[in-house]
Automatic annotation (TrEMBL):
<dbReference type="GO" id="GO:0008270">
    <property type="term" value="F:zinc ion binding"/>
</dbReference>
<dbReference type="Pfam" id="PF04181">
    <property type="entry name" value="RPAP2_Rtr1"/>
</dbReference>
<feature type="region of interest" description="Disordered">
    <location>
        <begin position="59"/>
        <end position="81"/>
    </location>
</feature>
<keyword id="KW-0479">Metal-binding</keyword>
<dbReference type="GO" id="GO:0005737">
    <property type="term" value="C:cytoplasm"/>
</dbReference>
<dbReference type="InterPro" id="IPR039693">
    <property type="entry name" value="Rtr1/RPAP2"/>
</dbReference>
<dbReference type="GO" id="GO:0005634">
    <property type="term" value="C:nucleus"/>
</dbReference>
<dbReference type="GO" id="GO:0043175">
    <property type="term" value="F:RNA polymerase core enzyme binding"/>
</dbReference>
<feature type="compositionally biased region" description="Basic and acidic residues">
    <location>
        <begin position="1"/>
        <end position="10"/>
    </location>
</feature>
<keyword id="KW-0904">Protein phosphatase</keyword>
<feature type="domain" description="RTR1-type">
    <location>
        <begin position="83"/>
        <end position="169"/>
    </location>
</feature>
<feature type="compositionally biased region" description="Acidic residues">
    <location>
        <begin position="282"/>
        <end position="292"/>
    </location>
</feature>
<feature type="region of interest" description="Disordered">
    <location>
        <begin position="1"/>
        <end position="29"/>
    </location>
</feature>
<feature type="compositionally biased region" description="Basic and acidic residues">
    <location>
        <begin position="262"/>
        <end position="274"/>
    </location>
</feature>
<feature type="compositionally biased region" description="Polar residues">
    <location>
        <begin position="17"/>
        <end position="26"/>
    </location>
</feature>
<protein>
    <recommendedName>
        <fullName>RNA polymerase II subunit B1 CTD phosphatase RPAP2 homolog</fullName>
        <ecNumber>3.1.3.16</ecNumber>
    </recommendedName>
</protein>
<feature type="region of interest" description="Disordered">
    <location>
        <begin position="244"/>
        <end position="292"/>
    </location>
</feature>
Length: 292
């Protein structure tokens, strides 16, 4: 019998909060401000981490011996290089190459050799007697010690993500492969997961961009309220517009179609000019000369 009875509910009103609406809005604003401050601090920490990695990789590799070359680096150096370069964007990688060139090193971080300095002139020829022969700037060739290191460095660069490191929260870690090593097991699954996450991120960015463009087209702008919430407000102040019908005093009359067609050729007149064909045109021209 007791099991069948409904659970009794209190008829008393819930106690009111002791905080005023102004205190609540201030507390929400402080909470949002702290969340934004944490995001900014995370971005700064990641940027500092990338700068430290550039400084470390500018003097790589730490293990230098005849048995360890750019094509077969030390396993410890290769593993450390991949770990340090994961948060990089392609622009950060270019900064690393430039930093190594300033120090006189080859642009490829796992190469112990110095960069080329035997070329002169502004342009140089590459790949002689080959289908991919080209004329390039000398400074681009001098970034490396050889064409092999250039291929190895660019092979790494194309694997880096264009997305900033602090935006990769829901994305798998970037996996870096070296040109001269065998791919790891499960590499295809990791690449697929990373591509799917990147695609979702691109879709979110595109939707946000389209929404912002639509708001601007409608004349709205985003404004932060007291609680930090974004709201749309009109770009220009609204005003009342009243549409009234024009007061016409004269009597309207329908348009009259001109019916005067003496020679039956009014359909040949276009903007005051009459089209003439063949003998008719010659006859008309001779009549005009006679009248003249």
């Amino acid at each position: 019998m007791a099991a069948q009875m409904r659970e009794l509910k209190s008829i008393l009103k819930p106690p009111r909060s002791s905080h005023t609406p102004q205190q609540k809005s201030q507390a929400e604003a402080e909470k949002i401000a702290l969340a934004h401050a944490r995001i900014i601090q995370q971005q700064k920490d990641l940027e500092l981490r990338i700068l430290d990695a550039i400084e470390t990789l500018s003097t790589y590799p730490p293990t230098r011996s005849p048995s360890h070359t750019a094509s077969s680096p030390s396993p410890q150096d290769a593993s450390s290089f991949k770990s340090l370069i994961r948060p990089f964007q392609p622009s950060d990688y270019d900064d690393l190459i430039e930093e190594r060139n300033i120090l006189g090193h080859c642009g490829y971080a796992l190469c112990p050799k110095p960069r080329r300095s035997d070329l002169t002139g502004k342009f140089t020829l590459v790949n002689h007697n080959r289908p991919d022969f080209a004329i390039v700037e000398t400074k681009d060739v001098q970034r490396w010690c050889s064409d092999g290191c250039a291929r190895r460095a660019l092979y790494v660069k194309v694997q880096l993500s264009e997305t900033a490191a602090w935006e990769r929260v829901a994305m798998p870690d970037v996996r870096i492969d070296l040109l001269d090593e065998e791919p790891e097991q499960g590499a295809k699954d990791t690449d697929l997961a990373r591509d799917i996450a990147q695609l979702k991120l691109d879709e979110e960015r595109r939707a946000k961009k389209d929404s912002t463009a639509l708001s601007l087209e409608r004349g709205d702008v985003l404004e932060r309220g007291e609680a930090g919430k974004a709201r749309k407000v009109p770009l220009a102040p609204k005003f009342d517009l009243t549409i009234r019908e024009k007061d016409v005093k004269s009597v309207a009359s329908p348009p009259q179609q001109e019916t005067s067609d003496q020679d039956g050729k009014s359909h040949l007149v276009l903007e005051g000019h009459r089209t003439r064909f063949g003998a008719v045109a010659e006859e008309s021209d001779s009549d005009e000369e006679t009248e003249a």
